[in-house]
Design a protein that fits this description.
Shape: elongated
Oligomer: single chain
Number of helices: 4
Radius of gyration: 23 Å
Number of strands: 7
Strand order of the largest sheet: 5-4-6
Helix content: 40-55%
Structural class: alpha+beta
């Protein structure tokens, strides 16, 4: 093999190395993201926080309400993972279910919650149900499942 353009060859090797390294870093970030989501799901299960799959599925890659956002703009690879059920509002009245369970919340005034009790004894919210219960003012302590999962992920 005869090479007359050593600068071009070196440039081509750098391009291949850059692209290859970016792919390796992308693959590592995706594996870490999947692993973090699994830690979150494990912590939700460990604490027994849910009896339906809506929130659980929001912490799976590609699940409805899932956050899986890449940022490759700042000479770094960043992968943001989590649940997007609900909103990012600072108003507790419009927080999504995953955030309410993680951070806790307060019911400030009595109100009716439509739904029914299933055979397992758990309440099922159903906005079209004729029955339900009156939610009385009280506070619920956050379970910090997300924070605990991230801490375990960082340590593990």
């Amino acid at each position: 093999m005869t090479v007359n353009d050593f600068d071009g060859l070196a440039r081509r090797f750098r391009q291949l190395a850059d692209k290859g390294m970016q792919q390796v870093l992308t693959n590592i970030a995706e594996v870490l993201g999947d692993s973090l989501l699994n830690h979150i799901i494990d912590e939700i299960d460990r604490q027994g926080l849910i009896d339906t799959g809506l929130m659980w599925n929001s912490f799976t890659r590609g699940g409805e309400g899932n956050v899986w956002e890449w940022d490759l703009d700042r000479n770094a690879i960043t992968l943001e993972v989590g649940s997007n059920l609900g909103t990012d509002s600072t108003d507790q009245n419009v927080w999504g279910y995953p955030r309410l369970l993680n951070e806790g919340y307060t019911i400030h005034k009595e109100h009716f919650v439509p739904g029914y009790w299933n055979s397992g004894g758990s309440f099922v919210y159903d906005r079209n149900a004729k029955g339900g219960f009156m939610a009385k003012p009280r506070s619920f302590i956050g379970r910090r499942y997300f924070d605990l999962a991230v801490t375990e992920f960082e340590v593990g």
